[in-house]
Amino acid sequence: MARPGSKRKILVVDDDMELLGQLTRNLESSGVGETVPLSLPSLVMERLSEGDISVMLLDLVMPGASGADILRTVTANFPEIPVIMMTAVTDVSTAVDCIKSGAFDYLTKPLDTARLYSTVTRAVSFSELTSENRHLKKFLLGEPLANPEIFAKIITRDAKMQSIFKLVETVATTLHPVLITGETGAGKELFARAIHDTSGVSGEFVAVNVAGLDETMFHDMIFGHRRGAYTGASESRDGLIKKASGGTLFLDEIGDMSPGSQKMLLRLLQEKEYYRLGSDILYQSDARIIAASNCNFKEIVAKGSFRQDLFHRLAIHQIKIPALRERSCDIPMLAEHFAEESAKELSKSRPELSQDLKMALAKADLPGNVRELMNMVRNAVACNRNGRLDLSDFEGLSPALQEKKKGVVKVSCDGGFTLYAAFDRFPSIDEVEELLVQEAMRVSGGNKGIAADLLGVSRPTLNKKLESVNNV
User: Fold this and answer.
1) Is the pTM higher than 0.90?
2) Is 304 in contact with 262 (CB distance < 8 Å)?
3) What is the fold, at CATH topology level, of the domain defined by 330-397?
4) What is the mean pLDDT of the segment spanning 419-439?
5) What pLDDT sits at residue 422?
6) pLDDT at 396
7) What is the CATH number of domain 404-472?
8) Mean pLDDT, to the nearest integer, of 210-215?
9) Which pLDDT value is given to residue 401?
10) Which residue has the higher pLDDT, 125 or 203?
11) For residue 403, is pLDDT > 70?
C-alpha cells in the first residue's frame, strides 16, 4: 500500500474506456489524488503489488471477470486498501452483498460527481488512518526504525530521542500538518527534514523563518503576488507554497505570526487553497505544512495572540524536541562530532577533547542547546593551536560567564548587590539593557535566535532592541 504521505494514487478498474477517461478527469481536477486507470481486470493484483495504491474503484460487472470475485481476492491480500464498487442501478442488491464482503462503499452508475468525490475522499482518509494505525502499532511494539539512515544527521544515543525517531516515521505516513516544539537550537528543522525525507514525497523541502514578517510580507513570500500588486511588482511571482508543491513547506517560528498571517495560514490548512497578493484567482496546494516554534502554545493561545483554531489545525501531530540539558549524555558525543566537522572545514587535524572538558560541557548551562554547543566548539577549534581542546579553549564554561549568560551580575559590596563593578556608577535601565543585548549577542556568536532565548524575548523584540542599540 502507498504511504499516504506520498502522492495518493487511486486505481480505477473498468472495461469502459470512456468512463475511465471521465473518472480520471473528475478525480484529478478535484485534487483528491492521482488516478491510475486499468481496463484489464486480470492485471489488478499485479498492479496492486507495486505497493503505491491508496484506494481502488472497481466495476462490478465486466466481460470475463467478476468484480465480486476480484473484491474477495483484493480484501484477502490487501485488506488495508479500501475498495469502492461501481454498479448499475439494477445491481444494488449485489453491491450491498459486496459491502458485506468487505467493500468500503458503492456508487451507482451514472456516477454523481459530488458523491464520487465525497466517497473517494472518505476512502482516502480511511486509508491514511489505517496506515497511521499500522505504523503506530509498530512504534508501540518497539520495532526497529524502517529508515535509520534518514536520522544519521541527528547525533544521539538518548532513549527519548530514539522514541521520537519512531514517532517521526509514524506521522510521516500521513499528509496532516505537524507542529514541532522545542527550545531555540534544539534541532527542530532537522526533525522537519526527517519527516519530509521519510514521507517519500517527490516535491522539495522548502524552509522559511516567518518571525518578524508583517501580513503583506508573509502574503507575498508564502503565496506570491500578481504583477502590479504593489509598487515595484513588475511581474508576477510564485510564492514558496508553489515551490513546495508535492513536497513540504516548513514554517519556522510561527508563534510570532501576525493575526492576518495566521488567518491566511488557517485557510490554507482548511481548504488547501490560497490567493496570490493582489489577485482574485484561487490556487490549489498539495504541499504538506510542518511548523515549528519555541513558544508555549498554551500560554499564547490563552493570551489571544495565537488563534486556537489554527493551533488545533497545526497540532494534529505534535512533536516536542527535548532540550540538550535533558539528554546531557549526548553532549560529549556531539562536541566530538562538531570538533571533527569543524577541523575538516578548516583543513586541520581532528583535535582531541580532554576528559575534563567533556565533563564540563555535559554539566554546562547551554540555553541555546545544540546550536550553541556547535558554535562554541567551532570557535574553539578555529582558535586552537595545539591539537587538544580543554577548558581554556572554552571561555563560556567559566562560572563568571555562566552567570552573565543568565543575565545576572553578582558583585558583593557591603553585603549587598551592585552594578558599580560594570559601570563605575549606578547605570540607567537603558544602559543595563544595552549591555545585556550586547553580551547576549557576544555569547551566542551573533546568533539572534540564541541571543533572544538568552534574554527571554522574541526575535522581533530583539531586532528592535538591536536597532535601538545601533542607533545610539
Assistant:
1) no
2) no
3) Helicase, Ruva Protein; domain 3 (1.10.8)
4) 72
5) 55
6) 64
7) 1.10.10
8) 91
9) 42
10) 203
11) no
* Grid cell 514558496 in the structure block, residue: 240
Residue 364 is given by DSSP the state: S
Cell of 128: 491514511
Contact 165, 322 (CB under 8 A): no
DSSP H/E element including 256? none
Residue range 327-355: mean pLDDT, rounded: 93
Question: CATH 1.10.8.60 residue ranges in the chain?
Answer: 330-397
What average pLDDT score do residues 428-446 get?
A: 78
Location of each CATH 3.40.50.300 domain in the chain: 144-322
With 0-12 / 13-18 / 19 or more C-beta atoms within 10 angstroms meaning exposed / middle / buried, residue 34 is middle
* pLDDT average, residue stretch 157-175: 88
Dihedral of CA atoms 442, 447, 450, 451 in degrees, nearest 10, equals 50
HSE on the CB side for 111, CA within 13 Å?
Answer: 25
CATH 3.40.50.300 fits 144-322, yes or no: yes
* Fold exhibited by the domain 9-132: Rossmann fold (3.40.50)
Non-local (6+) Cβ contacts of 13 within 8 A are 38, 39, 41, 44, 56, 57, 58, 59, 62, 70
